[in-house]
């Protein structure tokens, strides 16, 4: 049996947002984007949602009310929370046109959580009101660490319906393909990767669906991105909080998939996790099993980063290091490849026979290789 998180842990750190949070809750540390030009106005008092820095389309918002300063090396904002404020966020229907929608995205610092380095304001501006294109609403996020479709339909149904009507009114010539509430649609990795989701649903080659995303023939919104859009448009909540899913792995490598999640504030210290958890969990990783795992000691988790952190896996012991052995020609990498990209050729040294235009970097071939060969790194070497 896996140990459960203490009830006090859940009560204390996974609050419903209907109370007052009061006085000195702690300090928050947020990285300053590389290359940013900083003003000399720090330290300064900030309010929740206030812009502290804007750089290359990315905004750094104050996560709480408090006093913001810069660390000595000027690599981090340090915000000391004080005062009190209401966290009540009732649903309130609002009318938007295209300019006010973009303004709201910009004000809330909303980001696509499906596409790399894509502020939503910049993304939506790529699509013209009078153009014909496809809008795709996916019920999944990239690794489906949590079921956001269920959260939205259960807790934000009115906002969700309002947003669909809004998309249709702003882009009257666009074709809206909504895959929410499709009972036959079950998640299986890599269904959360945008180009693969389009490939599966519209039966088009991956290279073509990838091109449609790059050339803005498809406006793609995954469930986690939609969740935060709804929070801003209809609950007036900027992108300063994000869910962190927690998974547990025992000494035998078995993963407990019971849903555990915390809705955390950007820059929040993660020291509460080991402090409130069974002491047998000593190792942690922010990567999924489909990515290269970088193990951390649970005592040095640092601070929550809403742009990078969405799940954490806790281990009873250090995950076994992968040792590469010779290929045994089992062809498992090819058998499991969801796009038939022929990854075995990278092991054989026949790079030209690898279908790199079909590869979606899902990591499945590496996970299932019985020889422990890191095909993922070989893929990174040929895909630019």
From TrEMBL:
The keyword Coiled coil does not apply. InterPro entries: 4Fe4S_Fe-S-bd (IPR017896), 4Fe4S_Fe_S_CS (IPR017900), Ion_transpt_RnfC/RsxC (IPR010208). One of its GO terms (molecular function) is electron transfer activity. Residues 317-347, 350-378 form the 4Fe-4S ferredoxin-type domain. Transmembrane segments: none annotated. The keyword Iron-sulfur applies. Keywords: Iron, Iron-sulfur, Metal-binding. GO terms for cellular component: membrane. This is 4Fe-4S dicluster domain protein. The lineage of its organism: Bacteria, Pseudomonadati, Spirochaetota, Spirochaetia, Leptospirales.
